Amino acid sequence: MDKRIGWIGGGAAAAIAIGGVAWWLTRTDTPDHVLVQRDGAIEVRDYLPLRVAQTVVAGTREKALSEGFERLADYIFARKRQGEKIAMTAPVLSDGAGTDGWRTRFLMPEDAGDLPDPQPGVELATIPARRMAAIRFSGNADDTILAEREAELRAWIEDAGHRVTGPAEHAFYHAPFVPGPLRRNEVLIPLG
Description:
Layout: H1 3-26, E1 33-39, E2 42-47, E3 50-57, H2 61-76, E4 92-96, E5 102-107, E6 123-127, E7 130-137, H3 143-160, E8 169-172, E9 185-191
Antiparallel strand pairs: 1-2, 2-7, 3-5, 3-6, 4-5, 4-8, 7-9, 8-9
């Protein structure tokens, strides 16, 4: 047998195994929604109210998201409070919180029941039912890519005759250790 074929086959098997492990390690519940419209990578979705734990951190988007994620992880994994852990869900949401900084939100599982009181800097809230336009993409979602996808989504919204009712949000479905091509990201914009 040609050694090159063995290496190619072994490499393909390793890639499939890594992808499978990455999927298994990052599989989480996601919120149900009703698909209203689809156009390629863009969807319009209706969501029911969502319970979230949220925090606001000042600074650059990436720094604030990292610090906000850690603060919320401390809450759901019961690191800074008493009680049971709360299951991780996806996506992690992030948006500009006006002049205060960046808001990071973890969605609470639908079956979570009564939630424990959060530590200082974290609050529990409910996002009302809403209609969202979303553009999905993979890769590393840096500021440039997020701005490009937001501009693309805004142009589609305008062409489709929809009305924007709020600022853009970013949705991250996978942990940073998942390879870029396997990551799911979205820019979402609320519609009226």
